[in-house]
């Protein structure tokens, strides 16, 4: 039986009735057509599905949409300020922090959280915080460089 869901995503409030088994990831991608958030493994191992909920990063594949009732979600689509990229998006481009790009939305959402949560004081700290975001192309050194630049 479907249950009501009231959720704010990138500043827009959505009211829906959904199957309580739907993950936040599938809700974002399939109900809201916000396909920037990627599904890599669907079981918490790759970080491609990383979003922010009330400012904290989570793996959206491990969270049921209904568990986020009343919360505020930010996805990669909500990061830019109109036509202006978020500084982390610009830094990923500048430092080539991507190759195929599939993991990039999750990497960027984690990278923003890395700085916001105060884990970007050294390369080691950055690598530790970012260790749940897997990049099959191996762009890790460039990702760290991008984060270091935004940290300043
Ligand atoms: Fe969620 Fe891989 S899709 S961690």
Task: Provide key terms for this protein.
single chain, 5-stranded mixed beta sheet, 32% helix, 152 residues, DNA polymerase, domain 1, binds FE2/S2 (inorganic) cluster, 5 helices, globular, Ubiquitin-like (UB roll), alpha+beta, 5 strands
Give an overview in words.
The structure is a single chain. By secondary structure, the protein is of the alpha+beta class. It contains five helices and five strands. It has a five-stranded mixed sheet with strand order 2-1-5-3-4, covered by helices on one side. α3 packs parallel to α5. The termini are far apart. The site of FE2/S2 (inorganic) cluster (FES) has 12 residues, from loops.
């Amino acid at each position: 039986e479907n249950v009501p869901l009231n959720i704010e995503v990138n500043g827009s409030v959505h009211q829906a009735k959904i199957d309580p088994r739907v993950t936040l990831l599938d809700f974002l991608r399939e109900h809201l057509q916000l396909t920037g958030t990627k599904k890599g493994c669907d079981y918490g191992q790759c970080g491609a599905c990383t979003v922010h909920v009330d400012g904290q990063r989570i793996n959206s594949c491990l969270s049921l949409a209904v568990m986020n009732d009343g919360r505020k979600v930010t996805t990669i689509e909500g990061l830019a300020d109109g036509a202006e990229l978020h500084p982390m998006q610009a830094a990923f481009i500048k430092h080539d922090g991507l190759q195929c790009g599939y993991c990039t939305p999750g990497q960027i959402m984690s990278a923003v959280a890395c700085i916001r949560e105060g884990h970007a004081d050294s390369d080691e700290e950055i690598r530790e915080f970012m260790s749940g975001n897997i990049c099959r192309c191996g762009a890790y050194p460039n990702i760290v460089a991008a984060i270091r630049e935004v940290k300043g």
